[in-house]
Every structure is written in C-alpha cells, then in structure tokens.
Amino acid sequence: MKNIIKLMAIALVIVASSCDTEYLDPNSTLEPDVVNNTDNLIMLINGIQQRWSSDRAGIIYTYTHISGLNTDELRLLNPGNLGENEILLGGDDVNGGNEVLINMWTNAMLTRKEATTVIDAADDASESASASGSLKAYGLFYRAMAHGTLIQFFESIPLEIIENATFEDRATVLQNAIADLTEAKGYIDAGLDATATADIFTSVDLENSVNAMLARFNLMAGNYDAALTAANAVDLSAKSTWVYDASIPNPLAFWFGSQNVTQAKDLTFGLPSELLPDENDARIPFYVTADDLAAETPNYQVVGFWSDNLDEIPVYLPGEILLIKAEAYARTNDLTNAVTELNSVLTKTATTDIYGLGANLPEYSGPIVQDDILDEIYKNRRVELYLTGLSLEDNRRFERPGPADANAERNRNYYPYPNAERDNNTNTPANPAL
Length: 434
Known about the structure:
Blueprint lengths: L3 H14 L20 H16 L5 H12 L3 E3 L5 H8 L9 H27 L3 H22 L5 E3 L8 E3 H21 L3 H4 L8 H16 L2 H9 L8 E2 L8 H7 L4 E3 L18 H5 E2 L11 E2 L10 E2 L3 H14 L3 H12 L23 H15 L6 H7 L21 H6 L10
Antiparallel strand pairs: 1-5, 2-3, 4-8, 6-7
C-alpha cells in the first residue's frame, strides 16, 4: 500500500495526542490541531481503511469470526485461542471480557471517532467546497459502516462522541447509518474532487460501496423500497475491495494459513439439513476445499478470497445486491420479481461474475409461495455470502431457530457489552441474556 510510513506516522501522532485512555475510552475526542489540513485528513482516511481491513484486531477479522463461529461457518482448531473459543461455545461462556468482542467494539468506535473527525474538520481544512465535500463523503461512509456493523452484534450502541453517551436502539442506529450514507451520496453525486481523493487508497469504489451499504442497511431496517432503489444503483461490473501487500497481509488468509485458529467447518455453510446447498453448486469449491474430500473426516480448508496473503477482499459482493433485491421483493409479496432476482444468483456463472463467483445452477423450481422463496433466498445468502460477517444478522432476520429454541442455528442473538465500555460509560445497558 502506498504512503504506509506517512500513514503510520500520522496515526501515531493522532493516538499520542488523544487522552491516555484512547483504547479504554473510544468516545474520547481527537485533538483538532492534528487534522488542520487536507493532507492530514487524507492520511487519516487511509488509516481508517487500514484499521478496518487489516490485522487480527481489525473489523474484518473480528466480525467474520464472531458471526462465523456463532453460526457454524467455522470450526476452531485450537481452543487455546480463548476469545474465539468462547464465541464458539456461545451462551453464558461469552462475557464482556471477551477479547474478540473488545477488539471489534474498540476498533469500530475508533473508526467512528476518526471518521467524525474527518467530517467535522473538512470545511476548515480546505477552502474548496468540492474538496471538503469529498473528504466528508469518505468520513460519512466509514462512520456508517462502523455503526451499521456494530448494531448487527449488539442490541444498542452509543451514537454521540461524548462522555456517558446514551445507547440508541437498533432502528435508530440503522436510520443514522442510512442518513450518513445518504449525505455521502449527495457529495458523491456533486462530484468527487481529485485534489482530495488522488492520494486516498483507490481500491474501495466509494460511489458503489455507498449504494451497496444503503441497500444493505435499508434491507436490515425493513425499508424495502429504499433497499431496491439503492441496489439498482450499484454497478455489478465494478470491483470494490480491501487490498493487501507483503507488509499488510490479508488478515483472514494470514490466520487461516497459520492452521492454528480457525478453518472451514464443512460443506454445509452452517445450514440445516432441509436447506443444504445443492451438491453441484459451483460456489462450494470456490469457498471450501480439502486434500481428500472423500475422506471419512476431510480437513476442510477455506479458499475463496482468503487463500493467499495478497488476496483482495470484496467490500460487498454482486450476489449480495441481487439477493437484497430478491428479498425486498419477496417481503413485499412481489414474488415474480423475487424469483427473477433469485434466478440471477442461481444461474450466475464464474464468467459472468466480476469475482468469478457463480452457482451455475438451474432456475428456482419450488412453490411460488413467500415462505418457500424466502427460505431459498436465505440458503443462497448463506452460500453466496460465506464469511462476509452477515450470517448472524441473516439468521436472526429470517427467524431461524435461536439459542433458546430446539435445533438452534445460532448460539447467541446479541453479545455482552465490553467491560471497557461499561467501565467508562455509566449508561451502558444490562447485557442481553442470550
């Protein structure tokens, strides 16, 4: 990645200039003199992207592992990895001291804080309205990502960066994320300024990523018309990815490759027996393999976007956008259009997908009944979107059996709040039972 040394330097200055409890108090405020010019804000945006996408403490590793271990996408190779082991066990075995939860919460809150700094400082850092608007667009995108991701794992989160901030419920948080993305879209539509964006890491396609997250979060919020509008605005032929190099490797590929933490559990993608993927589904070998698939107990291995340290990880997948449209139509009982979008995923081949991901299956032939179509959409989300961190959210939204039910398909609904947050915020709610 370019400008890594400068990026790390500015990040160190930012951390050093904050209060001493930077990681214990993610709601502390950055010093304004660190970000008083465009160059510093650009480096801060690059630092946000790096924080999100790299390292075992980063968001990509943590949300992938929390959702993957909760919903049976992953198996644990070494129970000495205590944080991951607690997530795998679920229930009362997870508490506010869990390191994986703490890492996700802390880095998401730091992402939110740094993104807010970009938003608040942009006007003073540049006399150009288009340049400041471009910087704000990036800040708004990452702040929305932080809020929209955390609310998939916790019942409520604080939105304000103040001492003892109150916690807001799921509907409020999602609406806040959608508002940030909508504002970002306005700046993007007005035109991004090359003087502000030329030195920002370019692998993330901001315009398409904003529309994709608008589709994702509107779907989660039950705003189906808005989800469809946003999904239709996404260019499915454009890539948007997190990129890596030798110094900053793909964190999932690195840790899967260590053969010491987690690996693919099996070929079921965490699905129950009545929803198992078709054995001819071409997405199965795309994502999971083994030296001997015919062995009595194959040693399943993750491949896909995580087989090499230099592999790029998509910010979103084209298949997610198609399945968002299918689900939005299905939930509004427009079953004809729901099946049309579902078939776009089922019949998609490696050659017609920008990432080479295709099921290559026949069209849907089941009953034209809402529940049946939603089951098929859920199944395809679990296969198409393997290890994208969305499996827990999907499992709840499709009302699959929870931890208190027979034949549970998830081991928790939401997670306890990190002890570090509770110690610093007297408004932290009681932990959920499950």
